[in-house]
Amino acid sequence: MSVAKPRGATNTALGLNAFVVYLFFYAPILLLVLFSFSDDNIVGRWGGFTLDWYRDFGENDEVQSALSVSVRVAIISTLISVVLGTMAALALERFRFRGERVFDALLYLPVIIPDVTMAVMMLIFFTSLDDLIGLQVTKGFSTITLSHVAFSISFVSIVVRARLAGMNQTLEEAAQDLYATRWQAFRHVTFPQIMPGIAGGALLALTLSLDDVVITQFVAGPGSTTLPVYVFGLIRRGVTPLINAVSVVMLGASITLVLLSLLAQRARGGSDPVA
Amino acid sequence: MTAAVEISDVTKRFGDVVAVDNIDLTIADGEFFAMLGPSGCGKTTTLRMIAGLDFPTEGSLKIFGDEVGTLPPNKRPVNTVFQNYALFPHMSVLDNVSFGLRMQKVDKATAAARAKESIELVQLGGYEKRRPNQLSGGQQQRVALARALVNEPKVLLLDEPLGALDLKLRQEMQGELKSLQRDLGVSFVFVTHDQEEALTMSDRIAVMNEGKLLQVGSPEEIYERPANRFVADFIGQTNLIEGTVADETTIVLTNGARVAAPSDHAAGTAVALSLRPERATLTPAGAVEAADGRTSVDGVIAGVTYLGNALVYDVALDWMTIEVREENRPAGDRPSPGDRVAVSWTTSDASVVV
């Protein structure tokens, strides 16, 4: 196989371009990490190496409580949206039913409408519950989780549907022809086939939930705030390298998640899951 | 003897589209049966109804005497070799082949042992641990076959199983399928759009078009005595010479010639004489005596196609052009374009179709 290789000036220019692009991507991250170890109250001024900010991070009750809310919201909202999103994807991809197109369009709405609109919608929804059906909703953990589920479902179902669309539907028929019930066909054939999609969707949901500021800020209540919202609040009070430390921990968590999902997909290749 | 498959008055509609139009078909036990027709003729839908992947809108479908109308596929004693095989990509060859047995709750060791036997049967011993994407097209097709046969189906359904293979491999697999079917003694119901494949492999052929069953018969019956124009034209090459029935032994061709052609159609019926190119004989003009009992028409050679082992002549008659196929002969001995010739045949060489 021969690949055309750029030569001379073109090659140099391309190399330079790549270097600048990567610099643009990663320089801020490097600076962020670097100054999280700086022993100075002002971000951007190097005051020698220290782990104080990480100690702060570990000891600060507000940070810890925000972290715990973030993690719990992320896990619970991901679990719920993965189940619902996958079911929605299966329904849309496999069945023809009345109102399918409408359902399809509505399902993807959260992807295209601005965060702030979604946030206001959720806020109005929760407050009007009281007027409409007399249900009093206290803003806090549950409203944050429900809001995250509301937007994650769309992303999960997009990813799972893409995977389903690429799957040969005859496989399910073949399974049924080979004495599998519909459920067994799903469990032994469809599910393993769409698993990478589900894992990808879950990862996306987890990341989106951990990241979200705008929507969470609208539906969060006193005493329950997520880490990004807390960091956002900190910035208004003045930037300290504590923010850097918190950001580095979140960054580390994101990278770990991505690596784990890659490893999980790589590891599939063992034995057939049929027991 | 109970028929393997008995289809009575079956119609299948998808919305307004009639995919299968009121067909009756009986497939005997141990028969190699082909369903032949152009794409969209309803042959695959018929196969899917036998498999239980589609259900008839009307009519009755029996497998070995049991009505199976709306029984789901997993409750039927039949298995399918799918077009493009539909092997499970995330499972090894062994897991693919033993899938049906495991779903039937056969214990693991027995399932594995029987799957191994079946893999040996299709000559894929040693490939048990491979994934489908590590196999060639021909090997995948054997896995699909083993995966179906391991369940000892009472009827094996094959949906264009050789369609994705190249010509040489296809011919090889045709022979193997045929001998496999003979050894197992199980009915094979085989869907194809390839008339040559159907002719070489089957005991009987059903020709379908536009959802209708046009003719069922042995390859020879179908080829020699086609039921209508469509069948005559679809199976092999043929010349359709238009005419009208004069009486039970004669038809009048478009040019006014009266030719001997027995048929049981009423006088005045518009018919065509189906004359296979290889059954027509070419002689220099004037050499045939009408007294030989041969029908003869005069024409001029319009073109010659060289096929290696054979030659195909386009003969221009006054009102149409017909093809005549002859074995190859030395160059000096062939008629050439412009030569006046006579094309002749006996009544048993041609058949009358509506």
Structural features, described:
- The complex is a heterodimer of chains A (275) and B (354).
- Chain A is mainly α.
- In chain A, α3 packs parallel to α7 and α3 runs antiparallel to α9 (182-211).
- The radius of gyration of chain A is 23 Å and the shape is globular.
- Chain A contains 12 helices and no strands.
- Chain A folds into 2 domains: 9-50; 63-271, Orthogonal Bundle (MetI-like fold), CATH 1.10.3720.
- The model of chain A is unreliable at 269-275 (pLDDT under 50).
- Chain B is an alpha+beta fold.
- Chain B contains 8 helices and 20 strands.
- Chain B has helices at 43-51, 93-103, 108-121, 137-149, 167-184, 195-201, 219-224, 229-234; strands at residues 5-14, 17-27, 32-36, 58-63, 66-67, 78-81, 155-159, 187-192, 204-209, 212-217, 239-247, 250-253, 258-260, 270-275, 281-284, 295-306, 310-316, 321-327, 340-345, 350-353.
- In chain B, α5 (167-184) links the parallel β7 (155-159) and β8 (187-192).
- The longest helix of chain B is centred in the middle third of the chain and has 18 residues, at 167-184.
- The model of chain B has no long low-confidence stretch (mean pLDDT 92).
- The chains are: A mainly alpha (275), B alpha+beta (354).
- The interface between A and B is medium-sized, with 21 and 28 residues.
Number of strands of chain A: 0
Q: How far do the termini of chain A sit from each other?
A: 43 Å
The shape of chain A, in one word, is globular
Order of helices and strands of chain B: EEEHEEEHHHEHEHEEHHEEEEEEEEEE
Q: Oligomer, anyone?
A: heterodimer
Which CATH first-tier class of the largest domain in chain A would you pick?
A: Mainly Alpha
Which key terms come to mind for this protein?
heterodimer; A: 275 residues; MetI-like fold; 2 domains; 76% helix; globular; B: alpha+beta; six-stranded mixed beta sheet; five-stranded antiparallel beta sheet; 8 helices; 20 strands
